[in-house]
Design goal:
- This protein is an alpha/beta fold.
- It folds into two domains: 6-15 and 230-354, Sandwich (Immunoglobulin-like), CATH 2.60.40; 33-226, von Willebrand factor, type A domain (Rossmann fold, 3-Layer(aba) Sandwich).
- The chain has helices at 35-43, 61-77, 108-116, 127-138, 163-171, 187-194, 211-226, 349-354, and strands at residues 6-18, 48-54, 86-92, 97-100, 148-154, 174-181, 200-203, 232-235, 239-245, 253-256, 266-267, 277-283, 290-295, 298-309, 320-340.
- The strands form three sheets. Strands 1, 10, 11, 13, 14 and 15 form a six-stranded antiparallel beta sheet that branches. A six-stranded mixed beta sheet has the order 4-3-2-5-6-7, with helices on both faces.
- The longest helix is centred in the N-terminal third of the chain and has 17 residues, at 61-77.
- Pfam families: CUT_N (PF25057), VWA (PF00092).
């Protein structure tokens, strides 16, 4: 067998950008969002939404009102009702303020009135404190079994830490979205908040906080969280993977193709806190994860094939293989990074899985 070659590449430091299936795409593509599809997706679904609006000194009263308009656009896309979706709202500057809580206004007209009466606060930008308030008070009234989503809007950089409170929210099963407005926003902090680049939206101005963005955001929430069985790609700074939900308890294994017997490359029921919420992430340096450079656009593609095997011992016709691919954009600085190059061999796939049985 020929030895696996190793290469030293001079590559730029990259900032992790987003999942790119085959080509670069804008974070918002209005042509792919159909209002009727969104309506169908959320009409009979419910979600607990906590919206965090930037009220720092750089915003100003007129711009803050644009955020309030966006809040109403978003509310109009959700099924706001006693049994449907609920919304809470926090405005944050130096000190965050919970304007109204989940379940406080469950009629669309009442909710619109509550949003319109909010007054601009102004002050420094402490997004981390707002995230902590979301965890401490924003989730009060959240119903058991209903997905929880926090949406953060910001136009700059937080003056306090956002990483720890964001992780605490995600640990509490809150899906965090971040909307960065203007080119002054700290994109790294947006990724720290969401933990997933798929949930980062960027727009050039507050005028773009419009119905189209509300549609895109609602559709993203709906297709990834409300519909069981829809795989979600995970693009981390040093790991890659996928997660999904199932209608019935999952009793099989999720593993990297051709690496069933590598414990680091496989996850079974014993590793899933919820037997209906399954997935796997693996480090770039293991499980034959492929990395290769791209010159146009400049950056690095990272990819791996992950198998969902629904039976604990046998392959079935319901098994699925998901090709996970993430793209990491180049930045300006350079660093020497050793990359391992390997060729995946998916032949004799069934044999490689069950060789030891």
């Amino acid at each position: 067998m020929r030895p696996i070659p190793r290469y030293d590449f001079i590559i730029p430091i990259f900032t992790f950008l987003s999942l790119i299936p085959t080509h670069l795409a804008n974070p918002i593509d209005n042509g792919l969002v159909d209002s009727e599809l969104i309506h169908e997706c959320v009409t009979h679904k419910a979600v607990e939404v906590i919206l965090l609006l930037d009220a720092s000194g750089s915003i100003g009263d007129d711009t803050f009102k644009k955020q309030l308009s966006f809040a109403m656009h978003l509310a109009s896309r959700l099924n706001i009702s006693e049994e449907g979706s609920h919304m809470a709202l926090i405005q944050y500057a130096e000190t965050p303020k919970l304007e109204f809580s989940l379940g406080q206004f469950n009629h669309p007209t009442q909710l619109e009135w509550a949003i319109q009466r909010i007054e601009y606060q102004s002050g420094a930008t402490n997004t981390g404190q707002a995230l902590r308030l979301t965890l401490e008070k924003g989730l009060q009234g959240a119903r058991t079994g209903i997905p929880k989503v926090a949406i953060v809007i910001t136009d700059g950089q937080s003056q306090d830490d956002v990483s720890e409170p964001s992780q605490l929210l995600r640990d509490a099963d809150v899906m965090v979205y971040a909307i960065g407005v203007t080119n002054l926003v700290n994109v790294h902090q947006l990724h720290q908040m969401t933990g997933n680049p798929v949930r980062v939206f960027t727009v050039e101005s507050f005028e773009q906080l419009d119905r189209a963005l509300a549609d895109s955001l609602t559709w993203s929430m709906c297709k990834t969280e409300f519909r069981p069985g829809t795989p979600e790609i995970i693009c981390g700074p040093d790991r890659i993977g996928v997660k999904a939900s199932t209608k019935q308890p999952f009793e099989g294994n999720v593993f990297v193709m051709d690496h069933y017997h590598d414990e680091e490359c496989r996850a079974g029921p014993e590793k899933f806190p919820d037997s209906r919420s399954i997935g796997l992430t693996v480090p770039f340096s293991a499980c034959n994860v492929h990395r290769y450079r791209s010159l146009n656009p400049k950056g690095i593609f990272v990819e791996v094939s992950i198998v969902f095997m629904f039976h604990s011992l046998f392959m079935t016709k319901t098994d699925q293989t998901v090709k996970v691919q993430c793209f990491y954009m180049e930045a300006d600085k350079h660093v020497t990074v050793p990359l391992s190059v390997r060729t995946s061999n998916s032949q004799n796939f069934r044999i490689s899985i069950f060789l030891d049985f």
